[in-house]
Amino acid sequence: MEMISMLLLYTLPLFYLLFLLLKFLHQKKHQSCYILDYECFKPSDDRKLSTKFCGKIIRRNQNLGLNEYKFLLKAIVSSGISEQTYAPRNILSGREDCPTIDDSLSEMEEFFHDSIDKLLKRSKLSPSEIDVLVVNISMLAAVPSLASRIINHYKMRDDIKVYNLTGMGCSASLISINAVQNIFKTHKNVCALVVTSESLSPNWYTGNNRSMILANCLFRSGGCAILLTNKVALKKKAMFKLKCLVRTHHGARDESYGCCIQTEDEQGRIGFHLGKTLPKAATRACIDNLKEITPKILPLRELLRFAVASFIRKMNKNSSAKGGSTPRPVINFKTGVDHFCLHTGGKAVIDGIGQSLCLSEYDLEPARMTLHRFGNTSASSLWYVLGYMEAKKRLKKGDKIFMISFGAGFKCNSCMWEVVRDLGDTNVWEDCIESYPPQNLANPFMETYGWIQNEDISTFKIPDEYL
Q1: Does residue 24 surpass a pLDDT of 80?
Q2: Which of 208, 376, 427, 443 is catalytic?
Q3: Which of 210, 248, 396, 458 could staple 289 via S-S, CB 3.0–4.6 A?
Q4: Active-site residue 259, yes or no?
């Protein structure tokens, strides 16, 4: 008996530790966040903004002076956007200065019904199987909420967990993913639907403030519905697995907070102000975000190489000051990342991130082509970029995809996805992917309005044939 007691005394703690380990592994197994499928929205062709029609929209804004006309047209010429992008119906019908609540809601419902219907049909899930719904539309707060409108239309369950996010800006889709990720940590066998877009109908600026009319050049209609799960049984059907996600928020800094903000101009017209401090704020947020996520996504050998190179540069600093020059060491993100999914905030944003991360034109191509074809669709932009990679059959099992986005606040959010299976399915790019990238990325606005850049503003006038 004494021997048995001694045996139990020594083995019971080991069994208990083994039990805790198995329990931990079981919990981790059910906490994984997978993307089952996603669907980007492509509006109908009657909502496309042609070059000529863009000129008409600018022309009918009676608040613009000649300087503003020239400034705005020059901005469009250098925007990197084609004439295949989409606008809300009230703008196409000339009612951008007097939008109604019906304009806003119909714009959203057209996107909701098209994308969610296709997503549920393709995944063979019924609305009653959705346990969590996260809706992110930054600049439209309706009552009942937009999430409630989706629940009512699809007759979802009474116990569904619902999150309706507003004011989160262009980086909000990763905030929505993070909300789902946190739910997955405490709930097993969950299916979540994330819906992300932006409402442009009530937010078209009709004044003449230069910092606010720029938004009209970049933002276009779009949206994406994303189906996520932590069900182990659905693992083999998944497209992507979330490896890590980092959020950076510089809202406590006044300069960052005010660089990208919805406000009124001197005449009381509401618009979206893009300040001169925006590039600086974006750079700071990006650096802080990368400092946190880099150790999580790059191999140890690259981190050690960078640390050693930085140490050597510091040691040689004195000799460099006397005549030599030691280049600043750069982290090679490609040692841990196969594809870069960048926010299409504008041509300058894409160029800036590419330069900071030392990316090639091949790496930047998905973001550039998305900006060209769909414009800046706010928080849904990342998923059009991802769709481009998939349509081009770039995504292979085991590949790592790095996503990074920026948004008002000021925020920088990033994450890493692992491709679970080979991908190359048809998606929103299906009808045009063969023509991208074009041999000559001609800008139709440049062809039509390029002459304006050399025009004397004192004699400037838009000829009738261009309107």
Answers
A1: no
A2: 376
A3: 248
A4: no
